Amino acid sequence: MRRLSALLAAAPLLLTLPALADGDAAAGQKVFTTKCKVCHTVDASGKNGVGPGLNGVFGRKAGSKEGFAYSPAMKSAGVTWDTDTIKAYVTDPKNMVAGNKMAFVGIKNPAELENLIAYLKDATK
Ligand code: HEC
């Protein structure tokens, strides 16, 4: 019973946990700088490099950024980028979109991924 009341007391706190569980954008920026920046921009310029500019990527259809020469695989991936699809793609690009041309091995560390997503959400708005 004591346990239960302790749990109940903690309930409001638990409800706010998803916000706390969100990644650390500052740490995510470091991940982006070391692992993505050679190929991608995030700012409003939307400039394409080796990879497509990622500004506005959340909610965008895969392979749809104007002026970028996507692989046929990416153009026909039928994916809309959101937290889950970007995570899946960045974890294992070759597996998520077979035949795509992003030469990146993937990030397997969940915390690193969370942080990266937190940064991307903010930086690509
Ligand atoms: C070596 C260059 C390179 C690196 C490093 C790289 N990317 Fe990419 N990325 C690409 C290319 C090229 C594509 C387009 C793939 C295609 O057309 O098949 C792409 C596509 C993407 C897309 C799909 C965008 C769209 O418009 O559909 C996302 C999202 C993405 N990359 C995120 C990342 C993230 C996050 C990182 C770092 C963890 C990263 N990439 C690292 C080259 C790279």
TrEMBL record:
Residues 1-21 form the signal peptide. It comes from the Bacteria. Cytochrome c2 is found mainly in purple, non-sulfur, photosynthetic bacteria where it functions as the electron donor to the oxidized bacteriochlorophyll in the photophosphorylation pathway. However, it may also have a role in the respiratory chain and is found in some non-photosynthetic bacteria. Residues 23-124 form the Cytochrome c domain. Keywords: Electron transport, Heme, Iron, Metal-binding, Photosynthesis, Signal, Transport. The keyword Secreted does not apply. This is Cytochrome c family protein. GO terms for biological process: photosynthesis. InterPro entries: Cyt_c-like_dom, Cyt_c-like_dom_sf, Cyt_c_1A/1B. GO terms for molecular function: electron transfer activity; heme binding; metal ion binding.
